[in-house]
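REQUEST FORM: STRUCTURE PREDICTION
Request ID: SP-0412
Submitted by: Lab K.M.
Chain count: 1
Length (residues): 473
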Amino acid sequence: MDDLFGAGRDSAAIDDDGDDDGTADRGPAAGISSPRSPLAVRMRPRTLDDVVGQQHLLGQGSPLRQLAAGTDATGPAGPSSLILWGPPGTGKTTLAHVIAKGPGRKFVELSAITAGVKDVRRVMDEALTARDLFKTTTVLFLDEIHRFNKAQQDALLPGVENRWVVLVAATTENPSFSVVSPLLSRSLLLTLKPLTDADVEGLLLRAAADARGLGGKVELSDDALAHLVRLSGGDARRALTALEAAAGVAFGDADDAAGEAPMKIELKHTERALDVASVRYDRAGDQHYDVASAFIKSIRGSDVDAALHYLARMLEAGEDPKFVARRIVISAAEDVGMADPTALQTAVAAAQAVQLIGMPEGRIILAEAVVHLATAPKSNAAYMGINQAIADVRAGLGNGIPAHLRDAHYPGSKQLGHGQGYKYAHDAPHSVATQQYPPDDLVGRNYYEPTANGAERDISTRLERLRRIIRGK
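STATUS: Completed
RESULT:
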């Protein structure tokens, strides 16, 4: 295990990629004086070709590729600084390191959490000196730029505008709201996307086999790999950290005389390492449909506790929250209906809010919508009504349109009798006129039959009066 994680090695011999200075790894007897760099650091890509995901930003001739190669993709008059916007673990720091490896580059990193205006000005002064005296371009990586206030961001402007530095700023918040306009206009904004499951799976397998990672000393079972991918949430750093922890648990359980075969990381190791049980859920298979079905049926059955359980089960398994939100909207229309017309408003608002806020806070919004729907009175009357109307249309019923309802605006329509005898509803008492609206063969056909539940109790009484007046009974 010591050999796997590099324990006992001289920490000074390790660079920021986790590589050493060429000395051989020591064996298990070396001791544990200094831990090796984290797996996520050791596996950091050295070139853009090694970057996992973000292929929409890495095409040939893209600004990132030109900047990494030491050329300004936007020409002499354009911005040479970048703002990288995306979720955690999608490669913002990695891209900054790759850009810094270009010819004639010097890398400086600041965190907006701890740095102030004085630190920014010091970097700018040193960058100007490096450029003028040593022909070296300083790449300034500023993490969490949204935490900088206006004065701190303004301090960056001279260096960015005069190209004393190539600023690579990272943020998890929308730069349109968190970055001052002058800095935003002088920088190229690139949006990073969460890694796909395939991206994370490939990254984990590479880390297990690569000499910079776990060196082929471990082998992931299918269940363990799926569990790590599911819990990563598209975050490469989280996935690699979890893999390293699971490897530690596996080697802790192993017999020291286990031999030279790779250590098998099983599902039980990932569960113990992360203290999170694996959720048996396949987003493309039976579990996906079974859990979603149980979720909707629990809402329909007014069991709010079961509905919240299935909601939690889907979210913990990594289900797309937009899929969950769509099911909630459908349930509001199909199962709650006009018994509580506000349920659909809540569901639509929840779907929009989840897209705006994202996860994990989106779970609260979805839960509120589920509670509303599950505890609301239920009616599928509108749902059944449209189904019956469609069935009649498909059966060929509903021949023609009464002449008095037809369009009478075009020349010659009146000669055809269009609009003649039409009663304007607002001229009648209570704005309800006695008049035929459906085709002749559907007169008297009722599609909507409200229940006595919730708001439909009042609708039922009103609808009875409306039909009586309209049909002249």
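NOTES: Confidence is low (pLDDT under 50) at residues 5-35, 72-79.
Reviewed by: T.R.
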